[in-house]
Amino acid sequence: MTQTQSSENQCTLGSSCDAFAEQPTLTKSSGTCAEQSTLTKTGSTCAEQPFYKDGLNFACQQCSHCCRDFPGMVLLDKTDLDRLARWAELTPGQFILAYCRWIDTDSGEKLLSLREKSNYDCIFWQNGGCTAYSARPVQCRTYPFWTHVIKDQSSWDKESKECPGINKGPLHSAEEISGQLAAYKKRVPISKTEL
Ligand code: SF4
């Protein structure tokens, strides 16, 4: 989902979702790589091959399911904020007042997110699409190649029940997916204490 959902068993903290991603345990026994079929031996160490090593198919079907209808959050980092503010022809401060809200976290930190309408639609969703598409945040740009979505085959399959674009369309290479994942993980959502 493009908006990070607040539903059961799903991380609700965007980039902090990384903390929720279980890292597979790599084991090496008697010179062979054990435990998972995705492990390969390179030199004297075991290297993990992601389950998406042969690529994944994805093409957005523009159903808008990930942009509306349910509570969520789209966290913004500084690059997102600057890009969106330029697009809206506002200063970053004006953009925050007009289109953002602060999300309370368990640690007491407040993180910047796009606002939602009263029906939970993204503030920029209108007439079947994203009015800010050209300036959309990295969280939206990198979906569905998020840490917890591409953690393993089971996570990917589970997400495919929510997003009809998964397993459709062109094949995205492992290299491309890794690039998207890196961009997703690199985000540092803006904290209210920074402003
Ligand atoms: S196809 Fe998937 S990514 Fe595209 S709008 Fe629907 S839920 Fe979102």
- Return the string of H and E elements: EEEEEEEHHEEEEHHEH
Whole-number total of structural domains: 1
Bound molecules: iron/sulfur cluster
* Low-pLDDT regions: 6-37
Number of strands: 12
Distance N to C terminus: 28 Å
In DSSP terms (H or I, runs of 4 or more residues), the helix count works out at 5
Strand-residue fraction?
15-25%
Structural category is alpha+beta
Main sheet, how many strands, which sense, barrel? 2 strands, antiparallel
What helical percentage do the residues reach? 10-25%
Strand order of the largest sheet: 1-7
Gyration radius (Cα, Å) is 18 Å
Kindly state the mean pLDDT as a whole number? 83
Sum up the overall morphology in one term: globular
Task: Describe what this molecule looks like in 3D.
- The protein is of the alpha+beta class.
- It has one domain.
- Helices cover 23% and strands 22% of the residues.
- The chain is built from five helices and twelve strands.
- It has helices spanning 78-88, 92-99, 138-141, 153-160, 174-186, and strands spanning 4-5, 27-29, 32-34, 39-42, 45-48, 56-58, 72-73, 100-104, 110-114, 125-126, 129-130, 166-172.
- A two-stranded antiparallel ribbon has the order 1-7. Strands 2-3 form a two-stranded antiparallel sheet.
- α1 crosses α2.
- The protein is globular and about 45 Å long.
- Residues 6-37 have low confidence and may be disordered.
- Bound molecules: iron/sulfur cluster.
